[in-house]
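Hey, quick one: can you model this chain's 3D structure?
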Amino acid sequence: MLNTSMMSKTFTFVVFLVSSAAFVASASAADATAAAGKAKADAVCASCHGKDGNTPIDPSYPKLAGQHRDFLVRALLDYKSGARKNAIMASQSQALSRADIDGLADYYANLPGSLQVAMPK
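Sure thing. Here's the predicted structure for all 121 residues.
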């Protein structure tokens, strides 16, 4: 006869192991995406937005570090589709794949940003 308490503990342990493995695999995939994003950022974006994403060469260029991932993905997709207008970014975004965009968004979203919001007095 099987001990239900022992079966329950075994089942709980197996679920824990499977969940842990899935979490580690997910974290590894996110790390790989961000690493690919860093490589693309160094090759394509750093010349205008700064190597750290906080020091653009022109004050009118946005700081990318610390921006929300969703915002970065949407902005790049909109530049690529023409829904968002900017001659430089329209040209730059055409060469980006969806994987490139995801990697760039992951990379920049995880960098410390230097944006500050002034609160009205």
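One thing worth noting: The first helix runs from residue 4 to 49.
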